[in-house]
Amino acid sequence: MSTFSARIEGVGFWTDGIPSWDAARRFCLDGTLPGSAPARPSPQLLAPNERRRAPQTVAIALEVGLAACTAAGRDPASLPSVFTSTHGELGITDYTCTTLASTPRALSPTRFHNSVHNAAAGYWTIGTGAMQPATAISAMQASFAQGLLEAMVQLASGEDSVLLVAYDGSASGPLGEHARSQGLLGAGLVLSHESRETGPVLQVTLEAGAATVEGGRLHAHASGNAMAPMLPFFEALAAGAPSRVMLDAGGGQRLAIALRTGATAMESIDA
User: Fold this and answer.
1) What is the pLDDT of residue 1?
2) Where is the Beta-ketoacyl synthase-like N-terminal domain (predicted)?
3) Burial level of 223, CB count in 10 A (0-12/13-18/19+)?
4) 3-state percent breakdown (helix, strand, coil) of the chain, nearest 5
5) Domains and CATH numbers, the chain
């Protein structure tokens, strides 16, 4: 059994109809949705032309990553990052497979390079000018849990702070029948050592056993997206009160997460 602790310095969030972490918190507390919301993120890290051409998963990953860094008051270029996605860009994967099966010479090199699983991480390092390591992982339904665990391990291994970005988009075509996902969903966390003064603290423990998760408003709102398993964690974080959450970590394991708030949060967890 392994246990790691960190402080949450900043949070970013975006899903259809809920375009910010503040909006997500309000929705969790009283069910209020914003009067209007953009149909898709518009990540300011990219030049306008690139912003329009970027795949939906890249757009949402950069949007929530930058929002988390801004909330934390961190320079995005200074942070090592972990990008986790269940499926990556399934729309482009479907296009690539269809084109290869029908008119392979018509395959677009631009769209092809956006099909790789680390496309969002690549756009992030280019857009921010970051020279720090960027990790891209997938673990199916355990993708958020494993991404969080990877970020926590990097902190325990000596990094001062780490950016975690989790995201998934819509599935389409034949792949959509097997790798189901609807809409856009993404979240970012800037995590640092618990010795810092402000922000909630989380303590995660990897243990054997199945995770039993009960979702709330956020989960019901975006349950069709492949990254929905992360939503109970963000619902607990939005509540702003001490809480515990279990997430599926895959392979018959679960990630037990304890959340505490306030400057003495670490002492509360250890007690």
Assistant:
1) 65
2) 40-220
3) middle
4) 40, 25, 35
5) 8-197 (3.40.47.10)
